[in-house]
């Protein structure tokens, strides 16, 4: 493990800042009780960290003045299910893109198949970007929602969210943004970007632990609650509460996760998000340039790194992505992600679905220039080995 080069930060950032580990351990040891259920001191302190983190993330996303509209969930997938099922009903029309993760694709497909919601998908261009005008062309009288992935977890392209949001805002259509890959890498400003609902996860670039994520729901946007349960307040009421945050939160929250997320965001603010992104982009350019020079390596949507996050997908000619990933792991101690990356429509459009996806490198805050050089050398060795094997086979 000490020698492992971790380039799977698109899946989850690892390691976390030391402050995150310390914060979670200390919090759970000292204040690990159920918040909002009683009035003793430990309970109030536990509740205090929840409310502090709501306010912290409301500021982080520039969501508005009401921090109670910051909702905690298990992760972005859980949060997006709350939003999509709570905003759409039978007869509605939704628009999304081919860039989406299954956290959006599968709930929308479920609504299409079982709830008779109409659904359209917007394709991306050769550079990996969607055109805002394509959304305007798809809008119908019954269009109620547009859902867009801010940053692709496969090809790393960052979409023109503000422009798409403006179209939605002018037409009164709810605009839901999946910021799983960008929150913590790039500014996600709900006011400037015309976002109605932003979904985030804590365990990626917000530098928190797994098992925590959520939504911010802009004032004026109402999501139906599709679940019910305990809230710790007004227990005599038979129906689930309508007021936020209880409207979309159920049962005991993930307190250690919230404490870790709080520490992760504080670390980001201390280190400076812009500086981290600039450094990751520099490493991405080095990686892209190095891989481009290797005969037999194909990159996807990496010609221009403007409006990109540090995620890169590639394949070695004649080699299954999974086999390449195994070689990177076993022979070079490099952790990558292979396959369809839970985003099948991206692979269908770039043509990698028939070869079982691609190899993905995801660069994080703790990667070094030396590690990138080693990764380039490893891919070069794999490509050369594959070429030699193919040549021997043809001779035989």
Contiguous uncertain segments of 5+ residues: none
Q: In angstroms, what separates the terminal alpha carbons?
A: 40 Å
- CA radius of gyration is 22 Å
Strands side by side in the biggest sheet: 2-8-7-6-5-3-4
What is the CATH H-level superfamily of the largest domain?
A: Type I PLP-dependent aspartate aminotransferase-like (Major domain)
Described by the principal axes of the CA atoms, the overall outline is globular
Please work out how many helical segments DSSP would assign.
Answer: 11
| CATH fold assignment of the largest domain | Aspartate Aminotransferase, domain 2
- Our estimate of the beta-strand percent is 5-15%
Major sheet summary line: 7 strands, mixed
CATH level-two architecture of the largest domain: 3-Layer(aba) Sandwich
Query: Helix/strand-derived class?
Result: alpha/beta
Helix and strand sequence: EHHEHEHEHEHEEEHHEEHEEHEH
Q: What is the strand tally?
A: 13
Q: What is the top-level CATH class of the largest domain?
A: Alpha Beta
Instruction: State the helicity in percent bands.
Output: 40-55%
Say what oligomer this is. Answer: single chain
Domains (count): 2
Average predicted local confidence, pLDDT: 95
